[in-house]
Specification:
Shape: globular
Largest sheet: 8 strands, mixed
Strand order of the largest sheet: 16-17-18-13-19-20-23-22
Radius of gyration: 26 Å
Strand content: 15-25%
Helix content: 25-40%
Number of strands: 23
Length: about 625
C-alpha cells in the first residue's frame, strides 16, 4: 500500500481561508511504530503521514486494531520504551518529538499537546478531588501559587460548563456523572492552553445526549482557543459532525485521506465506502416492518455484504413469555453518624410491559434512567421493592432460592463488558459448560459436547475450548458470553449494553448473530441500549425510560417515526448523523446533569397517566418531564 503524504495545497488554502497560518501545529511523516512480540518486532503502524493545522480538526477513523490509537500514543511518546519502537518524523509546535529527552517531553505534554482518553474514570485518581487534579496540572507546568491555581481551575470548570464549579472543586470523581467526568478531563487537558488537543475516543462510552454535549463543547472551545484537534474515533457520525479532514486507517496504514466532505461523498478506497455503508443511520428503517440485519465489512477484502431482512418471529397470539407489572426498585440513602436512612433512590418506578416469544423490546435512555436496574430486577440479581414479574409461568418476585435457581434457566443476561464477566482463570470451554453441569442438565461429557456446539453456533470453533479469555478479541469474548447465555436454553435473554463499546463491524456481527439466534430459537430479547440507531434496526418495540419511569412505549416505527414525549424527541435529536453538512449545527449546550432520582422518605410517587396515540403506542402525559 502506498503511504499517503501530508496534506497539500487545498488544506493550506483552507487554513488561510480560516485566517490561520500555513504552518502546521503537528506534522507527522512516515510514522512507523513496532511492538516487540515473542522476541520479534511487529509493525502495527506503517508509513503514516499527515499534518494538523492551527484551528483545524483532523479525524483518524478506523476499527480496533487499525492503529489509530497507537498513532496518537506515538505522537505523545506514551508507549512503553522497552516494548515499542517509533520511527519516522514527528514535529509538534516546531519540536522534533523523537529527539527530545524524557524531561523535555514532560514539558511538551500539557504545554504543547494534551490528550483526552476514552474512559475518564480510569484516567482520574479516585482518592484526589477533581480540583486538586486539575490544579496539579497548572502548578506542574506553570508558575502559579495554590490560590491562583484554584481560581484558574474554577474558571476552567466553568469553561467546560460544570454547574456550580466553585462548590464542586472539592468533590471526587465518583460524585460526577460520566459526561461530567469527561468535561473534567477536558478542563485538565486545557489547563496549560495546549496548541494541540488529542481526543482518543472521548465519546464512545457516553450516552447520546451527553455525547452531543461533549462534541459541541469541543467545537466551542476550539473556536475560542484556536486549538488544533486530532480526533480519534470509529464513529462515522461523530467524524462527520466534528472534523475538517479525515484519515481512514486500515490494518496499520492510512488508506485514504482528504476533506471530510470528499471522504463521505466521494470516498475512493473500498474500505472507506464499506465503513460508511456499515454505519447504522437513524431513519433508515422507515417503511421496514421487521428488523434488518446489518451489512458486514469483510476483514480481508474491505467489501460490504448486502443486508437481509429478518422474518417475523413474534407470536403475539399466545401468553407473553415475560409480564412485568408495576415493578418498583429503590435503594436506601443513609447519612449522619449512625447511618440513618434519609431517603431513597427511586431507580425503577411503576414500570410495566409485556414481552412475547420471538420479540425484541428495547429499553433506551441515558445512564441513571433505570434501564439496567430494570433488567437486573426482573432476573432478581437486584431485589425489587414491589410489583409483579411473571416469567414463563414463574411468579419471579415470590420465589425461594431453589425455585429462583430453576427460574434462571428461562432467563439469562449478556453484560456490556465480556472480559469482566468471564473468569480469566477458566478455559472458555469450561465457562460455557459450567451452567449445564451446575443445573444438572447433563454429564460433564454431554456439557462439553453442547459447549462445543454452542461455540460453533456463535461463530467460533470447537478447538478453541482450551483457550482463555485474554486470548480472544473483544467481539469474540462477547460471542463466548452469548454461547454461555444459551447453554440453559433460555426463553428470554436480557442484553445489557452488550454491543455499546464495540466497533461498527463487530457490533454489526454481534447484532446479526442475535437476530439469527432469535429467528432459529424463537428467543425473546430485552435489549438495553443507548445507541438509538442500533435500537431502531433490531427492535420490534421500544420503551423510553427517564428517571426510573417509562415515558413512551410502542412499536419501533411509531416511537422513531412519531415521537411524542419531549425526552424521546431530545434523545433522537442528539444522535450524530454521518453527514458532513451538519458540521456547523449546534444542539445547544446544557450544563444540567440528569435530574436526581433521590427522594425523601415520605415521598409518594404520583400515579402516571398514559395516552394511547396509535394502537400500542403509549405516552406519559402527566409526571416527570426533562
Amino acid at each position: 500500500m502506498t503511504a499517503l503524504g501530508p496534506v497539500g495545497t487545498r488544506t493550506m488554502k483552507q487554513g488561510n481561508e480560516m485566517g490561520q497560518t500555513a504552518k502546521p501545529v503537528l506534522s507527522v511523516k512516515d510514522l512507523t511504530t513496532s511492538f516487540l512480540v515473542d522476541g520479534q518486532w511487529k509493525q502495527v503502524v506503517r508509513d503514516v503521514s499527515f499534518d494538523v493545522m492551527p484551528g483545524e480538526t483532523v479525524a483518524i477513523v478506523g476499527e480496533s486494531g487499525s492503529g489509530k490509537s497507537v498513532t496518537s500514543l506515538s505522537v505523545m511518546r506514551l508507549l512503553a520504551k522497552n516494548q515499542s519502537r517509533v520511527a519516522g518524523s514527528i514535529v509538534l509546535n516546531g519540536k522534533d518529538i523523537l529527539a527530545l529527552s524524557d524531561k523535555e517531553m514532560r514539558r511538551v505534554r500539557g504545554n504543547d499537546a494534551a490528550m483526552i482518553f476514552q474512559e475518564p474514570m480510569t484516567s482520574l485518581n479516585p482518592i484526589f478531588t477533581i480540583g486538586r487534579q486539575i490544579s496539579e496540572a497548572l502548578t506542574c507546568h506553570g508558575e502559579m501559587s495554590r490560590t491562583e491555581a484554584r481560581a484558574e481551575t474554577v474558571r476552567l470548570l466553568e469553561k467546560v460548563r460544570i454547574p456550580n464549579a466553585a462548590s464542586r472543586f472539592d468533590e471526587y470523581p465518583h460524585q460526577f456523572s460520566g459526561g461530567m467526568r469527561q468535561r473534567v478531563m477536558i478542563a485538565m487537558a486545557l489547563a496549560s492552553r495546549p496548541k494541540l488537543l488529542i481526543a482518543d475516543e472521548p465519546t464512545t462510552a457516553l450516552d447520546v445526549t451527553i455525547q452531543g454535549q461533549i462534541l459541541d463543547l469541543i467545537k466551542l472551545l476550539q473556536a475560542e482557543e484556536g486549538m488544533a484537534v486530532l480526533f480519534i474515533t470509529h464513529d462515522m457520525g461523530v467524524v462527520a459532525e466534528i472534523s475538517d479532514r479525515t484519515i481512514v486507517m486500515y490494518r496499520g496504514e492510512a488508506v485514504e485521506t482528504g476533506l471530510t466532505d470528499d471522504i463521505f461523498h466521494r470516498g475512493k478506497h473500498p474500505y472507506t465506502r464499506a465503513l460508511l455503508s456499515a454505519v447504522p443511520q437513524l431513519g433508515s428503517m422507515s417503511g421496514q416492518q421487521w428488523p434488518l440485519r446489518f451489512p458486514i465489512v469483510d476483514a480481508t477484502t474491505g467489501e460490504l455484504s448486502v443486508p437481509v431482512a429478518v422474518a417475523d418471529t413474534v407470536d403475539r397470539g399466545k401468553t407473553p413469555v415475560l409480564e412485568v407489572k408495576n415493578l418498583t426498585t429503590r435503594f436506601a440513602v443513609r447519612g449522619g453518624l449512625f447511618g440513618t436512612r434519609t431517603g431513597a433512590i427511586h431507580a425503577v418506578e411503576d414500570v410495566s410491559f409485556n414481552l412475547f416469544q420471538g420479540e425484541t423490546l428495547s429499553l433506551v435512555g441515558e445512564s441513571g434512567c433505570g434501564k439496567s436496574t430494570t433488567g437486573r430486577s426482573i432476573t432478581r440479581l437486584i431485589e425489587p421493592n414491589g410489583g409483579k414479574v411473571n416469567l414463563d409461568g414463574y411468579d419471579v418476585t415470590g420465589l425461594d432460592q431453589a425455585s429462583l435457581r430453576r427460574m434462571r434457566r428461562s432467563i439469562q443476561m449478556i453484560f456490556q463488558d465480556p472480559f469482566a464477566s468471564l473468569n480469566p482463570r477458566m478455559a472458555i470451554g469450561n465457562t460455557v459448560a459450567e451452567p449445564i453441569i451446575e443445573h444438572g442438565l447433563g454429564t460433564r461429557a454431554q456439557a462439553r459436547e453442547k459447549a462445543a456446539d454452542l461455540l460453533e453456533r456463535v461463530g467460533l470453533k470447537a478447538d478453541m475450548m482450551a483457550r482463555y479469555p485474554h486470548e480472544f478479541s473483544g467481539g469474540q469474548r462477547q460471542r463466548i458470553c452469548i454461547a454461555r447465555a444459551l447453554a440453559l436454553d433460555p426463553k428470554v435473554i436480557v442484553a445489557d449494553e452488550s454491543v455499546s463499546a464495540l466497533d461498527v463491524s463487530i457490533k454489526a456481527q454481534i447484532c446479526n448473530l442475535l437476530l439469527d439466534l432469535q429467528q432459529s430459537l424463537k428467543l425473546a430479547f430485552l435489549f438495553i441500549s443507548h445507541d438509538m440507531a442500533v435500537v431502531e434496526r433490531v427492535s420490534h418495540r421500544v420503551a423510553v425510560m427517564y428517571l426510573g419511569e417509562i415515558v413512551e412505549i410502542g412499536p419501533r416505527d411509531a416511537v422513531f417515526g412519531n415521537p411524542q414525549h419531549p425526552y424521546t424527541k431530545n434523545l433522537i435529536a442528539a444522535v450524530p448523523v454521518p453527514d458532513p453538512a451538519r458540521r456547523g449545527i449546534r444542539r445547544g449546550l446544557s450544563t444540567d446533569e440528569l435530574k436526581s432520582p433521590i427522594r425523601s422518605i415520605d415521598y409518594i410517587a404520583p400515579k402516571r397517566i398514559y395516552s394511547e396515540i396509535t394502537p400500542g403506542h403509549l405516552v406519559q402525559v402527566a409526571g416527570a418531564t426533562p
